[in-house]
Amino acid sequence: MLETLEIRRLLPGSPHLTLVAKWQYEQWGNLSPKTSQEAWQEELLRECSFDGIPAVLLALVKGYPVATASLVEADMETRRELSPWLASVYVLPEWRGQGVASRLVRKVECEAQSMGITRLYLFTPDQQALYHRLGWKDKETLDYQGVSVSILTREFASRRGQSVSDTKYI
């Protein structure tokens, strides 16, 4: 089934914007307790762009959204000096364990490389094993909004100006 997986960059007018905002809010809203789902969607809308950072990617199988990931300048209020970030990697439960997250992460890495970025950060409370398999390294562990999280980093060669991906849009 993954042979039909396609990854597209989410644009502001996408019909999937509300769904992606719902996924993200339900998954990580607890890290921003003063934020409503509507405010979350407005922020997501600001992250949808045609190129550069920020970027929101959506994985689809036969046109059906199954996962999302983002590339953002800042993802932790307390660690603004670290930038940019792989963020908001979410896969529908029925699609987990099938390589969807790995494909999304690799796509974000390719997008970053094409912009000349040589280092990315992410934080996760519980998916360290996935990211370690993909070559990410531990940076530190800390308490963030009452949750113990690990910050990981990934370094790679710059490919600024090289076409490393065939980005499509939705």
Automatic annotation (TrEMBL):
Annotated PROSITE patterns: GNAT
Domain N-acetyltransferase: residue ranges: 5-155
GO cellular component: cytoplasm
GO terms for MF: acetyl-CoA binding; N-acetyltransferase activity
Domain of life per record: Bacteria
Record has Transferase as a keyword: yes
Keyword Cell wall biogenesis/degradation on entry: no
Key words, A-Z: Transferase
Pfam families reported in the protein's UniProt record: Acetyltransf_1
Name used for this protein in its record: GNAT family N-acetyltransferase
UniProt source species: Pistricoccus aurantiacus
